[in-house]
Amino acid sequence: MIKHRGFPSRLTGTDFTFTIRRANKAGPTPLIERKRFADRRPADRAADAAFMAALWDQFGDEPFERGNLDGGRLSWLLGREVVPASEPFNPKDYSQLLRIDVAAAHAAFPNSVPSEAGEWGEDEEAAEDGAEEDDEDWA
């Protein structure tokens, strides 16, 4: 099992894990497509967005190996924002190649992933504009 060095191990200040420390002796947690409902807790939504941002920062639009990425956290994105990079897909394989579907990821997490044209979500731009204005006040 490959360990993704530099990848955050969890969402800061929470118990939402992004990576595992070692391979499971009973075999990898199988990846399944989990449905996300509109009434999910804000903390769960924040964990999904942070995990997607970490995936984008680490891998971009290139295929990546599942490795030590948390199977449960990946399952919340599988089939929509994260898709198999090769066929046949084996959900119980640490060496399975995955990739980010940029269009789907940007639609679901506009502040975590830029669009295919390289544009970020409106909220991100507004936050950047606000930050620039704040910097001017300090000068």
* Percent helix range: 25-40%
Tally of DSSP β-strands: 3
Q: Describe the sheet with the most strands.
A: 3 strands, antiparallel
Rg (C-alpha, Å): 16 Å
SS-based structural class? mainly alpha
Describe the global form.
Answer: globular
Detailed description of the structure:
The chain has helices at residues 42-59, 71-75, 102-108, 122-138, and strands spanning 64-65, 82-84, 97-100. By secondary structure, the chain is mainly alpha-helical. The protein is built from four helices and three strands; from the N terminus they run H-E-H-E-E-H-H. The longest helix is centred in the middle third of the chain and has 18 residues, at 42-59. Mean pLDDT is 80; it is low at 123-139. The protein has a three-stranded antiparallel beta sheet.
